[in-house]
Amino acid sequence: MYISTNWLGRHVDLTGVDLDALAKRFTLAVAELEGVHHVGAELDEHVVVGHVLEVHAIEGKHVRVTQVDTGAHGVRTIICGAPNVAVGQDVVVALPGARFGDFEIAVATVAGVESHGMIASEKELGIGDEHAAGILVLTDAPAPGTRFSEAYPVVDTLFEVDNKSLTHRPDLWGHRGIAREVAALLGRELKAQDLDITYTDDRPLTIRVDDLAACPRYSAVCLDGVHTAPSPLWLRLLLQRVGTRAINNLVDATNFVMLDLGNPLHAFDRRQIAGDAIVVRRAAAGERFTTLDGAEHEVGPDDLLIADAERGVALAGVMGGENSEIKDDTTAMVLEAANFDAATIRVTAQRLGIRTESSARFEKSLDPHLVGDASRAFCRLVLDLCPEARVTSAFMDVAAPYAEPTHIRLPVSLVERRLGAALGAARIREILTGLAFAVSEPEPGIFDVVVPSWRATKDIGIKEDLIEEVGRIHGYDNITPEPPQVKLIRPDANARKRFEHAARAYLTQSAGLDELQTYSFDFEPLLSRIGYAPEARLELANPISAEMPAMRRSLVPALLGAAEKNTRGFDELRFFEIGRVFHPREGELAAQPVMLGGLVAALDGDGTAATFFELRDALAGLAKAIDRAPLTVRGGGVSWPWAHPVRQATLSLGDTVIGHIAEVHPAVATKLELRQQAAIFELDLDAWRQSAPTPPSYRPLPRFPSVFRDFAVLVGRDVPAGDVQAAIAAASPDRIADVAFQSIYTGAGVPEGEKSLAWSVTLRHPERTLAEPEVREVEAAVWASLAERVGGRPRA
Amino acid sequence: MLDQLDAVLDEARAALAGVADEAQLRDQEVHFLGKKGALTALMKGMRNVAPADRPLVGQRVNEVRAEITSAIEARRSELEAARIAALCDDPDFDATLPLAGPPRTRSVGALHPLTQVTRHIEDVFRAMGFHLLDYPEVETEFQNFDSLNIPATHPARDMQDTFWLKNGNLLRTHTSTGQVRAMRELGPPFRAIFPGRVFRYEAVDASHEHTFHQCEGLMVDRHVSVANLIHSMKTLLSNIFERDVTVRLRPGYFPFVEPGFELDIQCQVCGGKGCAVCKQSGWVELLPCGLVHPNVLRHGGLDPDEWEGWAFGLGLSRLVMMKYQIEDIRHLLGGDLRFLSQFRQG
Questions:
Q1: Is B235 found in the same domain as B182?
Q2: pLDDT, chain B, mean
Q3: Pick from A431, A451, A478: which residue ends a domain?
Q4: How many Å apart are CA B332 and CA B339, to the nearest integer?
């Protein structure tokens, strides 16, 4: 929204004010300015009002030679090409030296005649309709020679206000409201308005409001003897500067008052108001209504209509109707000034997709008291613009009872304490009074503050709101920063975050995986490529796209998607993600466990499950890094559609499965066009975190020597090596210090259906040297344990 | 001619049966159907066929071509199935088999830049006695809006701004959802931050994402003033940026704080003189903050006459982009290793 400082000057004296400095203060105290624009500077010098004395044709040319009185600048000969130039006109003359953009006016010879200036068009002045033909003819010009910029508000400084920063300030949607803030900032007075209107009762209307909740106030005034004509230049200029196109005097007057006072108005052609009646009612279901932009809408009981005795004539607060708008031949009109409920207007504007200057304002909860001023301001302006116009009705006004004035009890000490600034009662009172709050002090140190009606609709209701008012006008920059005085507390580092960070640190620093983050939504095309149809998911009511309709239940699809995306660029892929997945639950908030998923992919060298084992061992290392028991790896048990049917395992804590690990199924890898062999895992990191911590424990360093023994164990081919290892370790826990894998062998010398596993076992006792007999005893125990637990026997 | 065609078909069937892999299959495809293939060679004999027989022979040629083509495709699926089956076959696979020898050392991986920045912020706040909290991403309407004094008619509740779930819950639109949870969980006085992922219903482009990261900060104590807030923010931001920063507060409207502010920091690029980054203003809008609204304190079970607080919401994604001068927010969740691998350290 643009605010013209010339316009502000109608409400507060800005003489001598540095407008750029004011703009900065405004940003810090009121609302963000997105820009400050100085316009019309080129019209300041060398552009004057002129009076056309003579116009003569030049033989064979389309231009004409004129004599123009420019007061102190003399009577000048000026060549003019405009068809509308005529004797007796007041015009705008650009004297030599005037600049319009890159173009400078100079004395020049045109068609054999020396021309001493230029009669300007609206387009050349940059102040009006681009398409207006011919020169600008002034209707209310001062004496010839008067500087154009002195007579009209052409040189202006515009504040471009960020509308979003005004959503909570219904009072700032017009120049007068802004001027009130400026006056408070400058410590100047807001000028009083002269809104005296003499009403008659010649041709009244009736007003009926069916829904006072949706329309808390409706007023109408009738005027006869109006006529449509272009508005005077000052009015067109002000409108144009703030980005509103001038149409005709009556429409311009409604726009001017809206932009001035903030209350939208609507003008009806009285000929079209049937039965001399205005009815404010809800639309009937299926009712059709054509707005003045020619669009037809289906409206219904959610929408408020302004109707006459027969039909709708305006969509309340949003847009007028085509059937009753002001026409070129309008001579009698009805002016609506009303207040509508914000939510009602918002619903209609949004559903029908019509956002107007009017609806934008009503959506902010305007002050019903504003209606009377807006109506009177319009009448004053129209009576000026159309001298033969007269008011032919009373000020007809239907309103719900006004809200009682809001009183707020405000301790002075609270203001000072919350702001952290000793302002003193006098200064606080001064600031509030400057913003039109009524302040009294019924008991010492306690203010009773009455909120002006235009701030009471939703903006100001509690003492904290007043503290903000005082703070912003005082200036937050004037508050000295002060460290908070707080109790020393023991910061509790969130166990989950700390745990997650430890996992991240290990996976990046030691396992060499990159961390990535992906969307929390499933991506359906990817799911179908990998053949995954998840069970019950948390579904979105308004997904951003049909391809992302629900929350993920697993991190894996996105990890596979990342592999697909990166497979061409890298021979090896290593990455992981830590993030929440979502499981719907009946009657309570979805379960949102934090999962850890990872993928390792490498070009397939030897046909072994190398990536599977790399990931598996990374998880074993991770367990140490995060002080948790290692996960038990058991082959099989994975139902993922993307899992290799054989190269897969479950990951368990005790008997509880908390995750899975598998090579990517070759068919899925083919579908994703992966160049690499990939393995993937996913586990419930929350579950692992909640298991018992296993911090490093100290054991005294061995004082007695170790003995090493190798075992070559024949077992069935389907016996897991992990079981064999466990069988050895369990044979004599206090004497077997370590069981290290050496090799696996099948082939000559190993019976069909069996395999040979070679282990290097470290034997040691904490309290004595193991002598040969005891070593043999342990050996025997190992073989006994192997025979009993896994059917193992020595390889001959 | 017809005999020759049948012969070619038989020959093709026999050859395909003997094909062992895709490369051989392609050779046979060329051999029988290629431009210089057996079938094309036969076609050249068409001119010797009696005109009356030509339609019949022509039809047969097409049939043979179709049969060879489908035989090739059938063989191709067989081969693919066999290839997959072979890849799936690993009778000796033992998920528990230890790897012999020392593990290979790997080059270091990258922490996601969001993690790096978040960790830094967590360290800064923990050093100043803040709790580090973590709250759900799927939330109730109450927690996301009502508990934060956002009225039922507020535009933020529209479908245009918020991801709603079919069950009536929603994806949190800000980390502020944790404010009331933290008050109830910790009890006053306390100070805490809660970083996390948030969601807005928004079309994605270089500077907008529907999924991004924020860090909420909240301090509740007996006396908390605007002067304290400014001091805290200045200290925190100086720690985050690892240099002294100048901040200023502007009025900003957020229903859950009163007074509410937009906090700007003096432009780190030009030092406040004005440049393209700060749009010549010398200031960069960094975070919204304010004193906690009494209604929010009430929802947190606290008496607003007894307890006061300040809160802020820091845009982590924005901060990451500022820190590394990342031009496109979509990189953050895009999963492109060319992006992520640039953040490897050590």
A1: yes
A2: 89
A3: A478
A4: 8
- In this complex, do B235 and A483 lie within 8 Å of one another by their Cβ atoms? yes
The whole-angstrom separation of Cα A46 and Cα A77 is 16
In a domain, A199, yes or no: no
B100: in domain: no
Least confident window among A391-405, A550-564, B41-55, B137-151: B41-55
Cβ contact A302:A214 at 8 Å: no
Asked whether residue A36 falls in the same domain as residue A51, the answer is no
pLDDT score recorded for residue A491 = 64
Name, in order, each residue with C-beta under 8 angstroms of A714's C-beta and a sequence gap of 6 or more.
A750, A751, A754, A755, A756, A792, A793, A794, A795
CATH assignment of the domain containing A732:
3.30.70.380
- Whether residue A148 is found in the same domain as residue A266: no
Contact A582, A538 (CB under 8 A): yes
CB contact under 8 A, A717 and B91: yes
Residue A538's pLDDT is what? 96
Kindly report the nearest CA distance between residue A420 and chain B, in angstroms: 5
Distance CA A239, CA A250 (A): 13
* Closest residue of chain A to B168, computed from CA coordinates: A541
Give the structural domain span for A161: 2-40+157-186
Q: Is the pLDDT of residue B269 over 90?
A: no
- Contact state of A744 with B97 under an 8 Å Cβ cutoff: yes
Per-residue burial over B323-336, b = 16 or more CB atoms within 10 Å of its CB, e = otherwise: eeebeebebbbbbe
ipTM for the complex shown: 0.90
Domain containing residue A467: CATH number: 3.30.56.10
**pLDDT digits over A681-700, tens only?**
999 999 999 999 998 888 88
If one counts the domains in chain B, the total is 2
Q: What is the CA radius of gyration of chain A?
A: 42
Interface contact B190-A489, CB threshold 8 A? yes
| Residue in B with minimal Cα distance to A649 | B95
Least CB-CB distance to B335: which of A509, A561, A667?
A561
Query: Any idea what DSSP says for residue A50?
Result: E
pLDDT (tens digit per residue) in B162-201: 999 999 999 999 999 999 999 999 999 999 999 999 999 9
pLDDT band per the 50, 70, 90 thresholds, residue B34: confident
| A749 and A773 co-located in one domain | yes
The secondary structure element, H or E, covering residue A597 is strand A594-602
Summarised one tens digit per residue, pLDDT across range A158-191 is 999 998 889 889 999 999 999 999 999 999 999 9
Interface test with B, best of A423, A463, A520, A523 (most B CBs within 10 A): A520
Q: What is the CATH number of the domain that holds A572?
A: 3.30.930.10
Q: What is the reported pLDDT for A335? A: 97
Are B202 and B210 contacting, i.e. CB atoms less than 8 angstroms apart?
A: yes
Alpha helices in A87-131, H assignment, sequence order: 122-125
Report chain A residues whose CB lies below 8 A from the CB of B93: 609, 635, 646-647
Minimum-distance CB partner of A482 among B106, B109, B227: B227
* Of A690, A719, A738, the domain-final residue: A690
Residue B142, classed as helix, strand or coil, is helix
Q: Is residue A765 part of a domain?
A: yes
**Percentage of residues in chain B with pLDDT exceeding 90?**
48
Q: Work out the pLDDT band at A60, boundaries 50, 70, 90.
A: confident
Most B CBs within 10 Å: which of A544, A633, A744, A789, as the mutation test of the B interface? Answer: A544
What is the dihedral sign for C-alpha B287, B291, B294, B299?
A: positive
The pLDDT value recorded for residue A407 is 97
Q: Is the CB of B210 less than 8 angstroms away from the CB of A569? A: no
Its domain, for residue B68, covers: 2-88
Tens of pLDDT, residue by residue over A616-647, are 999 999 999 999 999 999 999 999 999 999 99
